[in-house]
Known about the structure:
Layout: H1 3-11, H2 13-22, E1 28-31, H3 33-39, E2 46-51, H4 55-66, E3 69-74, E4 79-84, E5 89-95, H5 101-106, E6 116-118, H6 130-135, E7 138-139, H7 146-149, H8 152-164, E8 167-168, H9 170-178, H10 188-200, H11 204-214, H12 217-220, H13 222-225, H14 240-256, H15 258-262, H16 266-273, E9 276-278, E10 281-282, H17 283-293, H18 298-301, E11 303-305, E12 308-310, H19 314-328, H20 333-345, H21 348-352, H22 360-370, H23 374-386, H24 397-420, H25 429-436, H26 442-456, H27 463-471
Parallel strand pairs: 2-5, 7-8
Antiparallel strand pairs: 1-2, 1-6, 3-4, 4-5, 9-10, 11-12
Helix pairs in contact: 1-3, 2-4, 8-10, 8-11, 14-17, 14-23, 17-20, 17-23, 19-20, 23-24
Amino acid sequence: xxxxxxTRLADAPVxxxxxxxxxxxxxxxxxxxxxxxxxxxxxxxxxxxxxAGDPGAVAKAIAAALGEHAFELSAEFGxxxxxxxxxxxxxxxxxxxxxxxxxxxxARDFTIGAVxxxxxxxxxxxxxxxxxxxxxxxxxxxGAESFASDxxxxxxxxxxxxEMDLEIEQGTLDLARACSxxxxxxxxxxxxAELRQLLGGPDPLRGLRLLDELGITGVVLPELETxxxxxxxxxxxxxxxDHTVAVLEHTLEVEADLERFAGDRAAEVAALLDEPLADExxxxxxxxxxxxxxxxxKPATKAERDGFVGFxxxxxxxxxxxxxxxxxxxxxxxxxQHLQGLARHHLRLGFLIPEMPLSRxxxxxxxxxxxxxxxxxxxxTVADRLSARGAGPIASxxxxxxxxxxxxxxxxxxxxxxxxxxxxxxxxGDEIAAELGIDPGPELGEAVAELExxxxxxxxxxxxxxxxxxxx
Length: 472
C-alpha cells in the first residue's frame, strides 16, 4: 500500500475513532472494503474488522465509546455490527477464521479483499497480491475452493467487478463457471442483498452481462432466463429479454435526466427515488428491479392469433410471478407489493393516450388505481415506451411524444397526491348510509368512491351538492 493510501486509511475518522475506543488494538485488523477504498482513493466510511478475540466484546467496546449500539449480526459467521448512525458509519467485527490472520485471509473470497492492516497502523499484510490486483483492475479468487466454500461469491464476483470496473481473471472465470450450478444455494436474503447492490450500483447493465458470463443468470433468476428468444409483436424490435435490458437502460437514462421527463418537479422525483423503501433498498433501486421484472410473465402468457403476437394478462400474471421470486429471495412484504404494483400497472398509462387530454375523473382513476407506486410506475412506463422501437403504432414518434407528455402530467399529479392525498370527504360513510338508506357493504363502498371521484373532479363542492349527486 502506498504511503498516501496508508495515510488515508489511518486518517479516516472512523478508523481514528475505533483506535481511540479500543486503545489496545492488538489482535484487531482492518480488512476488506476499507483497505480497498483507501487504496482506490475513496472515502472510508464503513469498516470491517477481523478480531482475534471475542468479536462481541470488541463491538461493544466500540459502541460504548461512540455512544452507539452493538448487536450480533450473524452467529453463524461470528459477526457483530456497530450501527453508528450519529456518525454515518457502519462497523462490522468478525472473529478470525482459522488460527491467525494469515489463515483468515486465505479463506477470503477475492485477493482485493484479502489484505489486512493492523489497527495499530503497521504495514499491511498482503500474502495473495491483492494490492497489485487492485492496481491492475483485476478480480481474482484467493484459492481454488473460493466458490465451492461459499457459492454466494458467484454473485459477489459479478457485483464487485461491475461496481469497481474490474476485469475477472480467466482462472477465476473458469472456477466460477465450474461452480455456477450452486449459485442459488445460499439463503434467499443473501442472494437478494447481492442483487440489490448489483442493480443499485453504478453499472447494473454490466452486472447483468457478468451474470451471463459467469453462467448464473438462469440459476439465480430462472424467470429472467426464460425471456430469451421470446419474440414480440410489431411494436417491438427486440425479443423480451433484450427489451427488458433496454428498459433497464432507459430507466437509468430517465434517472439521469429527470428534468426532461418530470420538468420542474424533477427535484421532487429525485428525492422520492432516494427514499428508503425496504430491505435496505431505495425506491430508485426498486425501480430498476421493476424494469427487470415488468415483463416477467410474457413467456407464460404468449399467444398468437391471426398472425399477431400478444401477451394478454402478463401484467397480472407478472405480479404473481414476482410474488414467487420475492418469496424465494425472502424479500419483505413491502418490497414484494411494491414490485408487484410496478408490474400490475405498467400498461395502464399507455391505454390512456387515446383519451388525451384526460378528464379530471380519468386522472383520479389513475391515481387511485396506482397508489402508492404512481410516480414510480409512471417513470417505468416512460422507459418501457422508449424501448419499443418497432414499426407498430405505439412506437411511432407521435405516440411516444404523447406518452411522454402524459407521463409528465401524471408524475406531477402523483406527487400532489402523495403530499395531499384525496380530497377530504364532504360526507362520512355513516352519513351516506343514513341519508341513502344503504347498509354497510359493497354498495356503500361504491358510493364513498363515487363521492371522492366527484370531489376530485370538482363536480361537487359542498354537502348539499354531494347528497344530490349521490341520490342521482
